[in-house]
TrEMBL record:
InterPro entries: Bact_2-comp_sensor_kinase (IPR050640), HATPase_C_sf (IPR036890), HATPase_dom (IPR003594), Sig_transdc_His_kin_internal (IPR010559). Residues 133-249 form the Histidine kinase/HSP90-like ATPase domain. One of its GO terms (cellular component) is membrane. This is Histidine kinase/HSP90-like ATPase domain-containing protein. It comes from the Bacteria. GO terms for molecular function: phosphorelay sensor kinase activity. It holds the Pfam family His_kinase.
Amino acid sequence: MLVVVTTRSPGPGMLGAVGEVARYAASQIELAELDASRARLDRAEVLALRAQISPHFIYNALNTIASFVRTDPDRARELILEFADFTRYSFRAAGQFTTLSDELRNIDRYLTLERARFGPALKVTLRVAPEVLNVVVPFLALQPLVENAVRHGFAGRGSGSIELIARDEGSDCVITVEDDGVGMDPEALRAGPGDALSETTNSDRAGAHVGLTNVDHRLRAAFGNDYGLVVETAIGAGTKVVMRVPKFRSGVRASGGGFGVVRS
């Protein structure tokens, strides 16, 4: 049998090809590690938002339900179902993104429980353009905005009103959550929504503002710096939080499982 052994070194062309393959493999490994890091960060931020759902809200919701058990059992059963659906959605093993329709449905559950607690003292107005219902938004993006509005609307007062509007603006969807509460000092908005409440001594409010910062970061990470939150406020004049998201973004989709980002 003829055995051929070569001791010749590969030519420059082969070395170049090997180098290109090595560089490509290294770049793919780096991209995979970056994607894995982003996924871990996304999961951490969603977990942080879940942790910021006010324990006072949960306690108050259960107390409200208990108060209806004797006086209005049918209403108590309805509220139990709303509370169960709210917690099931908020703590679901779902994707990083969902539809505005799903977010609004969960906000309605939250507000149903708060209206049961406050009665007619809490006035809520919802105006949503049908064409934006399927817009994709980060999971739990609206909860901190609305919860913050309820807290501010009632801070030191016996009543308050909240208005939530979602409208179509060409290639974007703009969502505003506005309350007529105590407002904030505009000077406190130094570096974004999170700093606006870092001045407060109320830990619940501080947590809510951390939630706003979290949402702002997730919007910018997903859609770019043209998107995110803008806070309009003045002391004694209420607070408006404006969220801008694209109506469509390639690679981002709502998901019932996994983490909802399609990467090519």
